[in-house]
Amino acid sequence: MKKSMSLDNKDKKELPLYPIGIVAELIGITDQTLRLYEKHGLIKPVRRNKNRYYSENDIKWITCIRDLIHIKKISIEGIKKLLEYAPC
User: Fold this and answer.
1) Residue 66 — φ and ψ, nearest 5°?
2) Residue range 21-40: average pLDDT?
């Protein structure tokens, strides 16, 4: 009898399942914004060929970044500096 390997919830949240267009639509931002966050090192999507894929945890982190920028009025450079002191 084969033992099935199932993923627990933590592992499932790390699976890069969502392409950039879906993530942008879910969060309400543009693909360009996601690419900008990546360029600045705030996110690191998984690459398959030339396509970017994001996990549920990535989506939560991107939402947090967006809130820091738009609600708390912290610049991208400010977020990068904060991450130096308290890496996530």
Assistant:
1) -60, -45
2) 97
CA count, 13 A, side-chain hemisphere, 35? 6
* pTM across the whole model: 0.84
14's tokens: 């790390």
pLDDT (mean) for 4-13: 76
3-state secondary structure 7-57: CCHHHHHHCCCEEHHHHHHHHCCCHHHHHHHHHCCCCCCEEECCEEEECHH
Q: Any residues with CB less than 8 A from the CB of 11 and at least 6 apart, and which?
A: none
- CB distance 53 to 46 below 8 Å: yes
> At residue 68, what are phi and psi to the nearest 5 degrees?
-60, -40
In the chain, the N- to C-terminal Cα span, in Å, equals: 41
